Amino acid sequence: MTNPAPPSGTAAWQRLGRVTGVAGLATIVLIFVAVVGTRDEPSFTATATEFHTYYRSPDTDATPFRSFLFTVGLVTFVWFVVGLSILLRRAEGEAAWRSAIAMGSGVLFVALGLSGIGNEAAVAFRAGDLDPQIARYAFDQGQAAFANGRVALGSFAVCCGWVIASTRFLPRWLGWLAIASGVGLALSRISWTSYIWLLPYLMFWLWVITVAVLLLRRNFRGVARPG
Fold this sequence. Notes:
Blueprint: H1 9-35, H2 48-56, H3 63-92, H4 97-125, H5 132-167, H6 172-187, H7 198-217
């Protein structure tokens, strides 16, 4: 028997682009399904008793499944981060430090997000035995982890946008959109108890959708050739 021929360089890049695009869209769908219809979280000024009640009364019997979907969505986002970073590294050329930082920042965001989800899931599981003050602390800790994660996500967006705007691997306006959302995400850490982060956060996910669609439609015929 003869071994099958390895895929050509162009085919490999085409496959990577499609996998990255699918991962980006799958992330959006999984996270949206996980969060739609959930209860509003208590505000930062809520009492300890309100936090305790929040953890003791989960949304529905589907709450564990929603948490599972959100976790899978974050892991799927790692696929998007790694795939896009590899594509941008090729476009960036030698000394591809921006795409390397983008990959590390994206993975760090997911790690912080998973730690927050795990913490809240554990608190909800043991809520009946928890002191209300501990419940409030657990909530604040989860929100702080998410706020720190937004800085990492902002770093990912800025680095990706920088490469896109300078190499035109994708439309240049997408690069500037990523930079704008990334700067906004990073600055939102200054006032992490406010909801000002929602605007750059939504801008970022709009950017992910657009990038994913363009990667699915793109022809990578020229990408495999060294620049």
